[in-house]
Amino acid sequence: MFCGFLSIINSFEGNFIYAAVLIVVAAIFDLLDGLAARITKSASEFGVELDSLSDVISFGAAPAFLIYNIQLNLFLEVGVMISAFYLMCVALRLARFNVQLIGFEKKFFYGLPSPLGAITVASFIISFYEMDRFESFYGNYFLPLVLIVSFLMVSRVKYNAFPKFNLVELKSKPFYFIFLTAAIIIAIVTEGKGIFLLITLFIFYGVGRALVQFVSNSNRDKSIDDSDELTNFDI
Questions:
Q1: Most buried among 33, 52, 104, 224, by the most CB within 10 A?
Q2: Bridge partner list, 159
Q3: pTM for the complete prediction?
């Protein structure tokens, strides 16, 4: 929550890169608080609510304020509405998650998690923000990116939760640990500029899997309908 608050202050002061970095730092703390709760066995409904309130600030208000100040303020009232739309999608995403949560263990999510949505926006700014090039080139992709991330957060696209750091998870899901380790190394080597590529791959993986599942279900339903028609004809 404090990182989100600092990010808003820096966005207001025009320190956009630092504001984006603070959102990524907030996401790291968000990952660590869940780990700390599991280690200390202190998960509670109070913690769930506090975590969601912090998420609204760090991954909703802070990115929305950054989005508005870095470019969308040029569109006046329309820019305000788009920035607010992003914030409302985060709030809806978190509210839906809270009412569907059973227990404190999460194996998967419906909709892009709000921390990943915020990291997507922040890492794009970290990777590509240069005043002259952002306004003339990269800025053309910023608005579509914001809208896509907003819709994905309230979508029904399924995303796996990050694995827990224990031997059982390591043996059952070694790929996720390899990917996470590689992501950390790439993020350090590229000074944060490789994060956007990694997050984009994760987003496309979820969307691609959803499309494959949709096509598979459609073909299965068609096969069932064809089978019913043959049965009715025989009768």
A1: 52
A2: 109
A3: 0.78
